[in-house]
Design goal:
Blueprint (H helix, E strand, L loop, with lengths): L1 H22 L2 E4 L1 H7 L1 H38 L5 H26 L4 H28 L3 E4 L15 H9 L4
């Protein structure tokens, strides 16, 4: 009798799991490919690179100035008084701190470059999200995964909606 209950329980569990699996419709989209295909993304990338180059040039100039002052200090150190050495070393340390702060402020995780990247990409992300929402609605999908991430280990090509999303974006979301 226990064996019969066990078999019924397993059968019921498998049957319920099978019906739930059939009702879930999944799609995948390669969001990296979508972004790479959009002209807006290329413009944003160019703008970010221009800003990064400007910041990098400023940083290199600051580092060059620091290096020059340090070399000058090294050459003149023997002719300086103890007080002059201490004052120059403090000046060099302050200048080095300024360089590090500039680098962090411009290139750090919360730096201006990262904030500008997020600001410029947000409208593009919204457009992509809207396109995915429309394709998902038309295909009656319950879930869409990004196949460009490592979290998707396998996806059947029949589930791929990447080109439908690209088409939706190119048609302006219509």
């Amino acid at each position: 009798m226990k064996k019969l209950y066990y078999i019924l329980f397993v059968f019921l569990f498998v049957a319920l799991g099978f019906t739930n699996a059939q009702s879930l419709k999944v799609g995948v989209a390669n969001l990296q490919m979508v972004v790479e295909q959009l002209p807006d993304a290329k413009k944003i990338d160019t703008e970010i690179k221009e800003i990064a180059t400007k910041y990098q040039d400023s940083l290199l100039k600051m580092q060059g100035d620091l290096e020059t002052k340090f070399q000058t200090y090294q050459k003149q150190k023997g002719m300086m008084t103890q007080e002059q050495q201490i004052a120059t070393e403090q000046e060099l340390q302050a200048l080095n701190q300024t360089v590090l702060q500039f680098q962090q402020a411009k290139f750090g995780q919360q730096g201006e470059l990262q904030m500008k990247r997020l600001e410029l990409l947000q409208p593009l992300r919204n457009k992509i999200k809207d396109a995915i929402d429309k394709v998902s609605a038309s295909e009656k999908l319950n879930l869409v995964l990004d196949s460009s991430t490592e979290s998707v280990l396998f996806a059947d090509d029949a589930l791929d909606i990447t080109f439908k999303v690209l088409d939706m974006l190119k048609r302006g979301g219509k």
